[in-house]
């Protein structure tokens, strides 16, 4: 064996592992991590579900000693271009290790500032501004002036930032000889204390997820203090299943706003520049960020952007977010999310000018939302699909495709719109009239013929069958859509739109369906029972001669009357919605 074969690929040591451990804990959310060694430091890559990619960039100045030798010696200078390309590829070494075991070994003496197996959902409670110990949680936004403080104060801040309040320190030396060899760690509590030697099995690096971010296609870029984003995400309900980032360009000040009151009213009516919206089974949570230098240090948004991500994936970033000082949030035109967390500098070395800031980056693919047309069609025809088999009649969407195509085209137009304005009472009021006429078509023209024209006389003459069919056909799609949402995540998942969630679909939608169908049947004498009931009602009201049957109302007039009733019911429902009251 030659002497060159004994030269380790990597030899590194650090006198205090707390800072290194904190950086690694930021990406400790999977069993395996790919470690890439270069002359500049380490790159730790972890991925999950082929959707989330976490990368920790740990530069060599984090270590007190960092010696790297390429796995293969470079060929002679007269080598071909192909040989030179091979040399460039061999200037780095990559292998896989179980990251959680690596972190546990660094914390073998309990002084590494945290446990690798701590639950990610239990986050540290951050003090609010104004507390006495606020100075220990500085977000590093004070510029160069903050560097003029004494080194001892800076060390104290860094130590407390990473959860290390003890004076006891753990030193570590790691050695990696090359492919096929384990990663050797020598961990010591102090120079004269216990020393532990550990070996971690390494594996050949497998190709990981590639998520290149094209800056030329960037739609949204925000730089803000990590505390603003950290506090917001910590307040969210862990049961949320989707997180949506919404960006809107900064509005040009209204030229007609001359007074402070007018300018303030214009700001209140404008769309938020940055909004985080959490969606869960029990409702939505919205958090708005104004384009204020005190909140957003940098904000770039050329056009309105809206993309959603799984909350469980965003929650993986919380450990890195907790220990970072600044956050860069970027989204490209395909919804690829890039979250970069700038970590506080470690204790300064002999030459602090050359120290490089370490950072952790997460990239996450946006949710491929189920086509909204499928949700709309499920809501419209789901109930009909449930009732038609029992009535032994074909559903309308199996006989004619005009109505399904109509709803699909309308929903496609809505989906192609660059932005949809927020709904408020003044806008919902005229829409309630349109909604009333569309529901009247379902409850008056579509449902009654399925019962009254049935081949079975027991079904066609039964008023109870008519009312039950109206109840199920009008509301079955709503229950189906939410049922699939409860089963989320599955390939059959349908994202329940806000109008069908809490305070969107209420008991009024349930009882008004059989009520309106009953009124329509009463006026048009759809069944013998309703003809007799119509005569009885008019006699009780004194509007007809006793014993003389009442003539039925023409279907068009009866449907228009039912549409007005539905519009009134929907309007009253909107007035009771909490969201509409706050507008």
From TrEMBL:
Bias-annotated ranges (Acidic residues): 132-147
Entries under PANTHER family matching the protein: CELL CYCLE CHECKPOINT PROTEIN RAD1
Recorded family membership: Belongs to the rad1 family.
Taxonomic lineage: Eukaryota, Fungi, Dikarya, Basidiomycota, Agaricomycotina
Entry's localization field: Nucleus
Pfam families, sorted: Rad1 (PF02144)
Major subcellular site: nucleus
Name by which UniProt lists this protein: Cell cycle checkpoint protein rad1
Highest taxon in the source lineage: Eukaryota
GO cellular component, one term: checkpoint clamp complex
Region described as Disordered: 114-166
Family matches, as InterPro entries: DNA_clamp_sf (IPR046938), Rad1_Rec1_Rad17 (IPR003021)
Organism expressing this protein natively: Lentinula edodes
Swiss-Prot/TrEMBL keywords: DNA damage, DNA repair, Nucleus
Any GO BP: DNA damage checkpoint signaling
Annotated signal peptide: none
């Amino acid at each position: 064996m030659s002497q060159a074969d004994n030269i380790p690929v990597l030899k590194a040591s650090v006198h205090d592992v707390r800072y290194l451990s904190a950086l690694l804990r930021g990406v400790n959310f999977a069993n395996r991590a790919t470690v890439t060694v270069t002359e500049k430091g380490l790159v730790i890559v972890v991925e999950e579900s082929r959707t989330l990619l976490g990368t920790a960039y740990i530069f060599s100045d984090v270590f007190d000693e960092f010696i790297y030798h390429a796995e293969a010696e470079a060929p002679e200078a007269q080598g071909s271009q192909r040989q030179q390309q091979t040399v460039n590829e061999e200037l780095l070494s990559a292998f896989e290790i179980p990251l959680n075991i690596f972190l546990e070994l660094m914390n073998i003496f309990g002084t590494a500032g945290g446990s690798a197996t701590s639950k990610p959902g239990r986050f540290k409670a951050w003090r609010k501004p104004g507390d006495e110990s606020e100075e220990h949680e500085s977000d590093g936004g004070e510029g160069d002036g903050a560097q003029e403080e004494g080194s001892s104060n800076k060390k104290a801040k860094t130590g407390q930032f990473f959860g290390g309040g003890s004076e006891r320190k753990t030193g570590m030396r790691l050695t990696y000889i090359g492919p096929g060899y384990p990663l050797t760690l020598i961990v010591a509590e102090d120079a004269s204390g216990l020393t532990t030697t550990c070996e971690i099995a390494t594996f050949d690096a497998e190709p990981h997820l590639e998520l290149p971010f094209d800056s030329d296609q960037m739609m949204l870029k925000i730089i803000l203090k990590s505390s603003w984003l950290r506090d917001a995400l910590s307040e969210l309900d862990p049961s949320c299943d989707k997180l949506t980032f919404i960006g809107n360009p900064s509005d040009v000040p209204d030229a007609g706003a001359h007074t402070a009151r007018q300018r303030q009213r214009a700001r209140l009516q404008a769309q938020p520049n940055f909004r985080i919206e959490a969606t869960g089974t029990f409702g939505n949570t919205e958090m708005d960020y104004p384009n204020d230098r005190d909140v957003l240090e940098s904000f770039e948004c050329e056009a309105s952007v809206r993309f959603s991500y799984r909350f469980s994936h965003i929650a993986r970033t919380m450990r890195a977010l907790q220990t970072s000082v600044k956050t860069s949030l970027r989204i490209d035109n395909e919804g690829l999310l890039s979250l970069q967390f700038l970590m506080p500098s470690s204790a300064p070395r002999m030459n602090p000018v050359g120290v490089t800031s370490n950072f952790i980056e997460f990239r996450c693919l946006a949710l491929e939302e189920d086509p909204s047309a499928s949700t709309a069609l499920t809501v419209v025809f789901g109930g009909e699909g449930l009732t038609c088999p029992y009535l032994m009649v074909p559903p309308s969407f199996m006989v004619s495709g005009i109505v399904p195509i109509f709803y699909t085209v309308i929903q496609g137009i809505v989906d192609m719109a660059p932005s949809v304005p927020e709904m408020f009472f003044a806008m919902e009021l005229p829409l309630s009239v349109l909604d009333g006429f569309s529901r009247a078509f379902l409850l008056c023209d579509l449902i009654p013929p399925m019962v009254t024209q049935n081949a079975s006389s027991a079904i066609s003459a039964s008023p109870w069958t008519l009312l039950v069919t109206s109840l199920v056909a009008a509301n079955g799609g709503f229950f189906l859509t939410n049922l699939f949402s409860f089963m989320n995540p599955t390939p059959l998942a349908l994202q329940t739109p806000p109008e069908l969630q809490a305070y969107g679909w209420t008991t009024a939608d349930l009882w008004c369906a059989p009520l309106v169908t009953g009124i329509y049947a009463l006026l048009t004498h759809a069944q013998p029972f309703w003809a007799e009931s119509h005569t009885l009602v008019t006699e009780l009201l004194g509007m007809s001669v006793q014993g003389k049957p009442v003539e039925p109302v023409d279907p068009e007039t009866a449907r228009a009357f039912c549409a007005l009733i539905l519009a009134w019911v929907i309007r009253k429902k909107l007035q009771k919605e909490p969201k509409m009251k706050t507008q």
